[in-house]
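S1.2 Input.
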Amino acid sequence: MIITTPSGYEVHVKDFLSFGEKRQLEKLIASRIKVKADADNKVDISPVDGSVNYEMQDMAFGFLVQKILKEGAEITTSLYDEIMSWHEADGKAVFDAINEVTAAPLVQPKKKS
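S1.3 Output.
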């Protein structure tokens, strides 16, 4: 998909995560969850630090953002650093698109009857 930011940047974003990319994001979350069971088999799951959300977005950025055009010219330096220097509304438009893709569930195969 191609999004155009409020300032006119054209950002090419993949509209899906591969299976392996989705697994890497899931592994990031799983690596932060701590599960403990006591002698009575009471399970305690510790909350996940909110900063993991930003780490997931940054990882997904690398998977999904393919190209940026600025006034018709392709940006060839770090795409992440480029977007981080933009006005907030422009950067938010890109990360909203990333969040839309990463929130999509994987298509589950149909069960045979």
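S1.4 Remarks. Helices lie at 19-30, 51-64, 79-84, 88-103.
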